[in-house]
Amino acid sequence: MDSHDPTHDDMVRRIADGAHDGSEETHTDAAQTRKVWDATAATAAPAGNVDAAWARLESRLGLKSRRSARIVFLRMAVAASVVLAFFLIFRPGASSVSFIEAGAGDQIASTLEDGSHIELNSGSRLEWQFEEGQRVLDLTGEAFFDVASTGDPFVVRTLDAEVAVLGTRFNVVSRDGTTRVFVEEGRVRVSRDSESLELTVDEAAMTTLDGALRRDSLQSAAATAWRTGGFGFTRSTLENVVSELQRRFDVDIRIENAELASRSVTGTFPEMAAVDVLNAVCISLECQVSGTDPILIR
After folding, report:
1. How high is the pLDDT of residue 24?
2. Which has more confidence, 262 or 42?
3. Which end of the chain is more exposed for a tag (fewer CB within 10 A), N or C?
4. What separation in angstroms does the CA of 81 have from each of 78, 85, 107, 114, 276?
5. Torsion from C-alpha of 270, 275, 281, 284, nearest 10 degrees
């Protein structure tokens, strides 16, 4: 097999071996990802033998082959230049506000005027206004930020939180009334009302529907799997998993058994079709997938 991306290696090792910090919560996460792996591979693979592990997973799920992350980024680059580039909203007596938007099934990568690099996930919108020594951005959905260090504050605002940095790499997802932040490099401060948390490398935080801000045990592979075409879920309900797949693929997925919608799933998956992700998830949740348009879960 051709050379592979280290991000994919990390995904496979976490699926095959689990990754936890000793807490009961992450121990449960690791057990669940192992259950998915065991059910989709003929035998468990040694952590170092990534290519062999992928081969078994692809064979079990009927996949042709995993695609290089370079293809994903090429598609994102095309989307950035052809689908939606930058737009300006002009308001009388006000400075211009730039925005970029990724529709269902699209992912966009671009560079802002300050040199910061952003990647926008499906069904997301980012607005920004850089002036008077401030870089302020408003995010709806999910984005990854590689912030250029200019000396000016860089602030990402969501519906219920604020993330402030000077120079770093981090992921923010704001959906369904909550916000999650994961730091890949550097340091950020996440604030909500009068509360704030300092995060550094491999640390995460989230807001909750009851108004709290807390640290989270979000797995690094799960937090940024979308950037290379994969999928990562940490204690996500099946309903949220379905919502993410619908955004990514612009497909119709319906959960016919209401009781299934609230079941929780943890796992990191490579780039694959929506139905293959659902089949792997349903191995853990003991449900069934059928149909194509719509895809039904029962």
Report:
1. 55
2. 262
3. N
4. 5, 6, 12, 19, 30
5. -130
Q: What backbone torsions phi and psi does residue 165 show, to the nearest 5 degrees? A: -145, 170
Taking each helix axis from N to C end, the angle separating 6-17 and 24-40, rounded to the nearest 10 degrees, works out to 100
User: Does one domain contain both 277 and 293?
Assistant: yes
Does residue 86 sit in helix, strand or coil?
A: coil
Angle made by CA atoms 145, 120, 244, in degrees to the nearest 5 = 120
Query: Would you call 207 helix, strand, or coil by DSSP?
Result: strand
Structure tokens at 174: 């704001």
**Comparison of pLDDT for 48 and 223, the residue scoring more:** 223
From 19-23, 90-94, 188-192, the region with the lowest mean pLDDT: 90-94
Query: pLDDT over 70 for what percent of the chain?
Result: 68
CATH value at residue 52:
3.55.50.30
Judged on CB neighbours under 10 Å (0-12, 13-18, 19+), 73 is middle
165/187 Cα distance (integer angstroms): 7
Q: What is the mean pLDDT of the chain?
A: 77
Residue 232 and residue 222 in contact, taking contact as beta carbons nearer than 8 Å: yes
Q: What percentage of the chain has pLDDT greater than the value 90? A: 51
Tokens of 147: 């912030």
**Domain membership of residue 166 as a residue range:** 69-221
- Angstrom distance (rounded) from CA 106 to CA 112: 19
- At 162 the pLDDT is 97
CB atoms within 10 A of CB 57: 25
Same domain, 131 and 195: yes
Rounded Cα distance, 62 and 185, in Å: 36
| pLDDT(80) > 80 | no
